[in-house]
From TrEMBL:
SUPFAM superfamilies: alpha/beta-Hydrolases (SSF53474). GO terms for molecular function: dipeptidyl-peptidase activity; serine-type exopeptidase activity. The keyword Transmembrane does not apply. GO terms for biological process: proteolysis. The keyword NAD does not apply. This is Lysosomal Pro-X carboxypeptidase. Residues 1-23 form the signal peptide. Keywords: Glycoprotein, Hydrolase, Protease, Signal. Belongs to the peptidase S28 family.
Amino acid sequence: MAPWIFLMFHSLLFLQSAPSSFAKFPYRHFPSSIIRPETPSLSSNNKIYKAKYFTQILDHFNYNPQSYQTFQQRYLINDTSWGGPKSKAPIFVYTGNEGNIEWFAENTGFMYDIAPKFKALLVFIEHRYYGKSIPYGGDRKKAYKNSKRLGYLSSTQALADYATLILDLKKNMTAMDSPVIVFGGSYGGMLAAWFRLKYPHVAIGALSSSAPILQFENITSQYSFNNIITQDFKSESENCYKVIKGSWKQIEDTASSHGGLELLQKSFHICKNYISGGYLEGWLETAFTYASMTDYPTPSDFLAPLPAFPVKQMCKAIDNPTLGNDTFAKLYHAANLYYNYTGDVKCFDLNDNSDPHDLGGWQWQACTEMIMPTGGSNEDSIFPVYTETYTGHSRYCEKTYKVQPRPTWITTEFGGHDIRRVLKHFGSNIIFFNGLRDPWSGGGVLKNISKSIIAIVEKEGAHHVDLRFATNEDPMWLRDVRKREISIMQAWISEYHQNLVDSDTF
């Protein structure tokens, strides 16, 4: 569900130099936006949840004195539907992503929608080093000061946080017999799946939505991400695809010509503080990428206020006959739909390094364990052709953090190679949802692994669309996806309760 990284982690998407001035960063972050989104319809002011804090240990895996330091980890809780411990009512836990937890709690409406049906307690746990869950006294500058302190930021530490907090919460609520199901989307979906595998005694199942757990170590092609974006636009309009594909050289040629940057600045309504050809290209690619990722069938304001089917709407803007052959006007109107759908923005700031969702820690994670090659583009790609390399990424991490990435660690810790064979032997009770319009689906689990590890794949689906609030405009396929997920989780809970009865009578 979370800015990506844009030119030396400046704001959103890219780092590494490509064959042209089109600079890229191949190891992508999960979605956010350089435009602060509209205030979500749900917030703590609406009493939808209560914020609480848990005293969490800094290092779960060592017994050095510094490991026993603690920090305050935030979690959000909603008990309005909970049936209580006496009825062994379930606890639904969201495994927080790389950002402040309110953002995810306010964009995971599926959990609120189904809580009354299950009489479930809802808990959203914030990931360490994000939001307000900051070690070293809650001081972000201290926590992010150097690699020695950032070294405690990892997926394994986060999963141990979740296990520790959940068990303590169940104990304090005298709810040790209440079954736990974990939920997550995007990186949070990866964490949910991994949590079920690593802590099966804590959670009876996991709903892992749009989780690219196979986007590591060349298990998935580096071209898959951009190929899916290409197909999303191409499926709407061949002309739209060709205009975007052919625009990059035109932008580069214009940027390098006399007066060209001034022309680009005027054409794209860029603020006068800064412009370059590379930044403009990254800004445009970000808009096309996020539109593809959040190509929802209903309006949304998850990343930025957007209409339903934003890819279709972008292509309508590009195909608008009144714009003639003015490529820059076509691109501007398409990008404006993503960055300025509400019409409030007067000019676009390419030098914006704001972080409204507290996502800065992902730079560290992308330099240590989350090595997810997704940047390559082939001849048919909507983006310029290039093949990414690991060298530039490694060099950046060494310079910035004095660390070398560990590209094989995730598959060593959680698996990934031969995933069907491996998980069939020891995994159970995981739902993997993927929408094929989501570029991250290329690294997702798209086939059933066993009777209880189920892949739900929807060709019209976008990034964790199943976790969004239900609306009256939802298409039937989306309603069916959610019904199936509910049915599977009901079966997990029924089996759990039956096993409790069996163990009591044994």
